[in-house]
């Protein structure tokens, strides 16, 4: 596994990271034993960047990662944690809290659940509109000074917020959605991140399964799968998006690769400062994702991909309208 450095000041990580969210939440039931086995397989393959959130399964995801790392060399893993989302016992959403006191409270619980004395990258999952980003980053800087976290990251913020945050403390990376179906960061966010020396950890590189090449139009979503409310999976939009996937399949087959491998390779080859996160929940899907490292996209391949999935071709917003409106990165 090749490595990349997150920005000018961040850690060296594997060129492909593993996102753990689906092992605990949002995509319906998951097999816990298979989840742990998948994390082990990722580590054995050289994947070091492991991304979680304290609100994924109300702490379950962090404890799952703790169990998977038990007995392993802690320093092999670069743990990235998102915080700040407020949820209720009905699994609903109650806003976001990034006040300095809340930041320190959240990290204390995460350290205990993870069973570690430090978190490698700690980031608010969204911008708190009630709290200046300078205050949040200032609190995070104190945690760096105390040795509780090693690096500060951000998630789904816009260019101006990046600038304000970077003025307080170096930011290692911005975690944000980036895929063939979600290219909004190319206009302003990505150029700004590069100007400031901030890396990108790209999530939803397979657009929540749409670009996996395995999605069947007649598939019924299980209880607890948030895609049931996602605009891109709604009737009409889904069919149009899957038509794009079929066009991409032709490019993949010509390369002797799968649709997912081409989609991941495309993100990876957008720059050495970008690390794709794959949300594999099983060893089978992980193995397929790892195969993307063997896929080189030449200029004619990239042109064919652009023709198959042009910028802005996706049908539907990447989040439901209420969540989309809250994204600082989309303002």
TrEMBL record:
<dbReference type="InterPro" id="IPR036812">
    <property type="entry name" value="NAD(P)_OxRdtase_dom_sf"/>
</dbReference>
<feature type="domain" description="NADP-dependent oxidoreductase">
    <location>
        <begin position="16"/>
        <end position="308"/>
    </location>
</feature>
<dbReference type="InterPro" id="IPR023210">
    <property type="entry name" value="NADP_OxRdtase_dom"/>
</dbReference>
<keyword id="KW-0560">Oxidoreductase</keyword>
<dbReference type="InterPro" id="IPR050791">
    <property type="entry name" value="Aldo-Keto_reductase"/>
</dbReference>
<protein>
    <submittedName>
        <fullName>Aryl-alcohol dehydrogenase-like predicted oxidoreductase</fullName>
    </submittedName>
</protein>
<dbReference type="Pfam" id="PF00248">
    <property type="entry name" value="Aldo_ket_red"/>
</dbReference>
<dbReference type="GO" id="GO:0016491">
    <property type="term" value="F:oxidoreductase activity"/>
</dbReference>
<dbReference type="GO" id="GO:0005737">
    <property type="term" value="C:cytoplasm"/>
</dbReference>
């Amino acid at each position: 596994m090749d490595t990349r450095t997150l920005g000018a000041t961040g850690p060296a990580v594997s060129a492909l990271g593993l996102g753990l969210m689906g092992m605990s939440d949002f995509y319906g039931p998951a097999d816990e034993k298979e989840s742990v086995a998948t994390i082990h397989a990722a580590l054995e393959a050289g994947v070091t960047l492991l991304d979680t959130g304290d609100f994924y399964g109300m702490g379950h995801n962090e404890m799952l990662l703790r169990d998977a790392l038990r007995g392993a060399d802690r320093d092999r893993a670069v743990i990235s944690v998102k915080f700040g989302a407020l949820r209720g016992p009905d699994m609903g959403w109650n806003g976001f809290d990034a006040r300095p006191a809340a930041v320190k409270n959240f990290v204390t619980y995460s350290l205990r659940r993870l069973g570690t004395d430090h978190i490698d990258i700690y980031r608010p999952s969204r911008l708190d509109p009630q709290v200046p980003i300078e205050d949040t980053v200032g609190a995070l800087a104190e945690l760096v000074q105390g040795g509780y976290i090693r690096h500060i990251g951000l998630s789904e913020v816009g260019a101006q917020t990046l600038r304000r945050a970077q003025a307080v403390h170096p930011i290692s990376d911005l975690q944000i959605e980036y895929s063939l179906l979600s290219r909004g960061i190319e206009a302003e966010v990505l150029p700004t991140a590069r100007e400031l020396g901030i890396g990108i950890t790209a999530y939803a590189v397979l657009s929540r399964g749409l670009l996996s090449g395995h999605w069947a139009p007649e598939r019924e979503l299980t209880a607890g799968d948030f895609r049931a409310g996602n605009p891109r999976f709604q009737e009409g939009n889904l069919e149009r998006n899957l038509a794009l996937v079929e066009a991409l399949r032709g490019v993949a087959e010509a390369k002797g690769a799968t649709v997912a491998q081409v989609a991941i390779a495309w993100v990876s080859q957008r720059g050495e400062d970008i690390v794709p996160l794959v949300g594999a929940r099983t060893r089978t899907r992980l193995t397929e994702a790892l195969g993307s490292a063997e896929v080189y996209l030449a200029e004619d391949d990239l042109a064919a991909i652009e023709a198959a999935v042009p910028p802005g071709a996706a049908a539907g917003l990447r989040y439901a309208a209420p969540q989309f409106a809250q994204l600082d990165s989309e303002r």
